[in-house]
Here is the input.
Amino acid sequence: MSVYDEIMILDCPYCGGPGVLEEEHGWSWYVVCADCGAQGGFIEYKGEEDRLEAAKKAAFVWNQGKARNPKPSD
Ligand SMILES: [Zn+2]
Here is the structure.
């Protein structure tokens, strides 16, 4: 089972688009909206041991609605 099967990502809190879990250069995870580009926080990890935990945390942060709005004027 991969990280992606195990983690649920809610839709974007801004536009309702699909949230996509992304891995950044092997050191962190974040969730980004495929439609509007809203972005959750980067969650860093140090190795394989905490890699999955970091991915879950990144998803959790996003699922709480803690994403940066790409259009702050809105
Ligand atoms: Zn969006």
In short: The chain has a mean pLDDT of 91. Residues 3-65 form one domain. The first strand starts at residue 19 and ends at 24. The pocket of zinc ion is lined by residues 12, 14-15, 17, 33, 35-36, 38 (CB under 6 Å).
